[in-house]
Design brief:
Blueprint lengths: L5 E6 L2 E4 L3 E3 H4 E4 L5 H6 L2 E4 L10 E5 H11 L4 E4 L4 E6 L7 H30 L1 H13 L8 H18 L13 H23 L17
Parallel strand pairs: 1-7, 2-8
Antiparallel strand pairs: 1-4, 3-5, 6-8
């Protein structure tokens, strides 16, 4: 093959696949001025997950050098430019479609747990700072009458609490009030990044990372 062709590759930090036979096209984005090269490279086998049940770890960390090695095995004269991650994770996840009843049961359980947890947290906070006594004192100070426990202060507090929660989380159902990510989305992204970094470092220290000179068995060197 004539030289001087450049292939640009880009890998995300974490990739999920739904079939045990993983090719370069399943995990890597590619671009090349020569349109005949990319389809050829995308079909190259990268690894195979031999254990596809819940008793085995269907996850492997891969060095980008392994990808470059596979490309050079097929096209030794191309120049590979990496524009993405230097190490990434591939997870095999068999797609399982849960039934309608199971899905709605799980949804109802999550809603109930979230509702009860939030309600308990709010009540614990109000009890800790003695909000009812504070409102009673404010009401008596402003009106000169004893509070009966349910006044305009309690009503506006409840309304303000709901508005404050919706504003803070920037989310109601499927609707977002602004284009900014919600605090929950930010925390989940930080959590995912920490998990991915830990997994890659763990695989690397235990020498289980799929790297140059290793076999193509998912997480098990040959």
């Amino acid at each position: 093959m004539a030289g001087s062709e450049t292939v640009y590759i880009k890998a995300d930090r974490d990739v999920e696949v739904t079939k045990p036979e993983v090719t370069l096209g399943d995990v890597i984005q590619m671009e090349c001025p020569n349109p005949a090269i990319v389809p050829r490279l995308k079909s190259l086998k990268l690894l195979t997950f031999h254990h596809t049940d819940d008793k085995h770890q269907n996850r492997v960390a891969i060095s980008i050098l392994k990808v470059i090695e596979r490309i050079h095995e097929e096209c030794p004269n191309v120049d590979v430019q990496n524009l993405g991650e230097t190490d990434f994770i591939v997870t095999y996840e068999e797609q399982k479609s849960a039934g309608g009843a199971v899905h709605y049961t799980k949804l109802a359980a999550v809603v109930m747990i979230s509702f009860m947890g939030a309600a308990f947290s709010i009540m614990a906070f109000n009890n800790d700072v003695d909000t009812s006594k504070l409102f009673s004192q404010i009401y008596e100070l402003l009106t000169g009458h004893k509070s009966d426990g349910f006044t305009i202060l309690e009503l506006t507090y409840c309304i303000g609490l709901v508005i404050g929660i919706l504003t803070f989380f920037n989310h109601f159902g499927k609707k977002k009030f602004t284009v900014d990510p919600t605090p929950m989305e930010i925390e989940m992204r930080l959590y995912e990044n920490d998990i991915q970094t830990t997994l890659i470092e763990t695989y690397s220290r235990k020498e289980k990372e799929l790297d140059v000179g290793t076999g193509s068995n998912g997480g098990h060197r040959t």
